[in-house]
Amino acid sequence: xxxxxxxxxxxxxxxxxxxxxxxxxxxxxxxxxxxxxxxxxxxxxxxxxxxxxxxxxxxxxxxxxxxxxxxxxxxxxxxxxxxxxxxxxxxxxxxxxxxxxxxxxxxxxxxxxxxxxxxxxxxxxxxxxxxxxxxxxxxxxxxxxxxxxxxxxxxxxxxxxxxxxxxxxxxxxxxxxxxxxxxxx
Length: 185
Prior knowledge:
23% of the residues lie in helices and 26% in strands. The chain is an alpha+beta fold.
């Protein structure tokens, strides 16, 4: 899923030291700029690459920065995860070499590289460097309700969906047959 500046908002809770002026300034920033300040961000992903996890135009992704992407000026890094701690099955925000921000699931962790795949894709994006990763999905808002990636149901479904990755081409063929039949009737 592609992330753009127009679909971004800082997490709505302000810290005690943050003012409304700070919030307004952050609303004009890109997701990457907000994450570099050490602030989680909500983004509205576009595209269908992470369907059924995200439905474009409906769902919001809550992304926390990873330690390595935060500006050296930020002193409090408590609670932020390191890129080295990311595991297979987690969803991360990274910047492609072309400059596009992408939110996809980690499907393999190799020697100093990550492999990513969208939940609605069959193509694996190989050899993403740790320096390209800027955030980690920590939650999502679906139909107005907040969900955490720590929820047991989310974690179970994520593992099952990643396990079924080799069968996705078959799922796509079968679903396209049903879609064609639905159009005919």
